[in-house]
Design a protein that fits this description.
Elements: E1 5-10, H1 21-29, E2 32-35, H2 41-44, E3 52-55, H3 67-79, E4 83-88, H4 98-107, E5 112-115, H5 120-127, E6 141-145, H6 158-164, E7 167-171, H7 177-186, E8 194-199, E9 207-212, H8 216-222, E10 229-233, H9 240-243, E11 255-258, H10 262-274, E12 278-281, E13 285-289, H11 293-301, E14 308-311, H12 314-326, E15 338-341, H13 344-352, H14 366-374, E16 382-388, H15 394-401, E17 405-416, H16 421-429, E18 435-438, H17 441-450, E19 460-463, H18 466-474, E20 478-481, H19 487-500
Parallel strand pairs: 1-4, 1-5, 2-3, 2-4, 6-7, 11-12, 11-18, 14-15, 14-16, 16-17, 18-19, 19-20
Antiparallel strand pairs: 7-10, 8-9, 8-10, 13-17
């Protein structure tokens, strides 16, 4: 019988940036991933296609898969010879029952490794501006479980905790919050001791309620605080308002849909997350390579017949140079030709492949690219266009009207997708989305066609340029337009929109 391997991996508190490198390595090479409820959707999105996922999540009071069953799943999958990743929220050995899961593996000689995770006991207070230790307030921190077996009272020595005068951090204690606060008071803790409860810590929907041991429970009930939450008790909690950096980020609490394909959307999504907003990646278009080897090889072999080569996207650049590598060629085949790029991102991609663009228009679109080229070429020049199958007609039309010879070679196609469309439609209909970003006309069209019944009156778009905005206007989508066709500019526009609210004077009329 084949013998597999089990990695017991801590996924951290939820923020994808707090996942360790080691954890990510195991996620990417697993055959099977057995995961908990507290593993965030952003981390689950890192799981490559083809890896089998088994959900064994437990809701408070509702264990759809018992711990014994989970243990047996790990053993069964390992015995098949699989690389099994047991993905657990926080750290697997801190109230995560990780030790129990290893016992059966040890008894059956299944090799395993433990990958520690950043515990919510430290990270969640940090994201709420609460240092769990501070020499002016305390010299120790104590982590206590607020969860106990069903129908059993909590086994907490409140007296001992109070006597140590350290910061107290209770995990899994929402249902027991009243009992915990009363227990501390009965053990002679000062009723006015600062306390806080933090819901969904480190995530864009983080919430915090502060108060004292005497009133925290009532305040948490009033704000309808739910699990998962971390409870902190101690003088350090009074620093929360002063040091609460996470919830003070400029886009905190905003919810934005990013429609770019994943091959090109990472920069925008990552930067938006760093500004505090909840990003819903909805890549409703997909880039499909469609290189015709014979045509492209022929054009490369006679590249000296051309004066200029024009790239209209980063995708085209990357696909073209990957093709060269597959054919055992490199950038030297372009040594006698000038290169034009439609914009900064395309030029940057060329630079990464060893090419400095000879021309980039000041305004990053096809019309200005073509018009700018006309100022640099003459009637004898020939141009090789490397771009999408359904690219804008502006470039060939402008060149054709001036009698410029060109060859249009498509090397990729833009396909529409509707994965997760129903979920996105639900978010929009429930007014859960603040903005939708559109980085091309095709993303607008794909977005609309992927959910034909969506109420577009509930959608406010931020478009990366005038061409994209025209497509948004065509579908009646209220929108703003970035000043430049760059990721930096679209982010600046988002910040402007969110900071100024729904100021209709700033909105482009549709």
């Amino acid at each position: 019988m084949a013998k597999g391997f089990v990695a017991l991996v801590g996924a951290g508190p939820g923020e994808v940036g707090l996942l360790t490198f080691r954890a990510k390595e195991y996620i990417e090479k697993a055959d099977v991933i057995v995961y908990d409820r507290l593993v965030s959707p952003d981390i689950l999105d890192l799981i490559p296609k083809g890896i089998r996922k088994i959900d064994v999540g437990k809701d408070p009071g509702n264990h759809k898969v018992s711990q014994e069953e989970i243990n047996n799943i790990l053993l069964k999958e390992a015995r098949k010879g699989n690389m099994v990743v047991r993905l657990k929220g926080g750290d697997p050995f801190l109230f995560g029952r990780g030790g129990e899961e290893l016992e059966l593996l040890f008894e059956n000689n299944i090799p395993f490794e433990v990958v520690p995770g950043i515990t919510s006991a430290i990270s969640v207070p940090s994201y709420a501006g609460i240092p769990v230790t501070h020499r002016d307030f305390c010299s120790s921190v104590h982590i206590i479980t607020g969860h106990q077996k069903k129908n059993e009272a909590l086994k907490i020595n409140y007296k001992a905790l109070c006597e140590m005068e350290g910061t107290l951090v209770f995990l899994m204690g929402v249902a027991s919050l009243k009992e915990i606060m009363e227990g501390l008071i009965k053990a002679d803790m000062d009723k006015k001791t600062p306390a806080a409860i933090i819901e969904n810590g480190t995530c864009p929907n983080q919430r915090m309620v502060t108060g004292t041991v005497e009133n925290l429970y009532e305040r948490a009930i009033m704000e309808k605080i739910k699990s998962p939450s971390v409870i902190v008790v101690g003088k350090v909690c009074q620093l929360a308002d002063k040091y609460n950096w996470f919830m003070k980020r400029p886009l905190f609490g905003k919810k934005i849909i990013v429609t770019r394909p994943k091959i090109s959307g990472n920069t925008l999504s990552t930067r938006l997350r760093s500004l505090g907003c909840k990003v819903y990646d909805y890549p409703c278009i997909e880039i499909q390579e469609i290189i015709n080897n014979q045509i492209l090889k022929k054009e490369i072999n006679c590249i000296s017949d051309y004066s200029w080569m024009v790239f209209t996207s980063k995708n085209g650049v990357d696909i073209f140079f990957n093709y060269l590598l597959k054919e055992n060629m490199d950038f030297r085949v372009l040594k006698d030709i000038k290169i034009a790029a439609v914009g900064f991102k395309t030029a940057q991609s060329l630079k990464e492949h060893g090419i400095i663009a000879d021309f980039v228009p000041d305004i990053f679109d096809g019309e200005n690219l073509a018009k700018g080229l006309l100022e640099k070429i003459n009637k004898r020049d020939r141009i090789l266009l490397i771009r999408a199958l359904m690219g804008t007609e502006e470039i060939p039309n402008i060149l054709g009207e001036e009698g410029i010879a060109f060859k249009d070679v498509p090397i990729y196609n833009t396909l529409f997708k509707n994965d997760n469309a129903q979920y996105m439609k639900k978010l929009i209909e429930q007014d859960e989305i603040d903005l939708v970003t559109f980085t091309s006309g095709s993303t607008v069209e794909a977005f609309v066609k992927s959910m034909p019944e969506v109420d577009l009156s509930k959608v406010i778009g931020v478009c990366i340029g005038k061409k994209t905005a025209l497509k948004a206007k065509e579908y009646g989508i209220r929108h703003f337009i970035s000043d430049e066709a760059t990721v930096a500019s679209i982010i600046s526009k988002i910040l402007e929109v969110c900071n100024e609210g729904s100021n209709t004077k700033k909105r482009d009329k549709t």
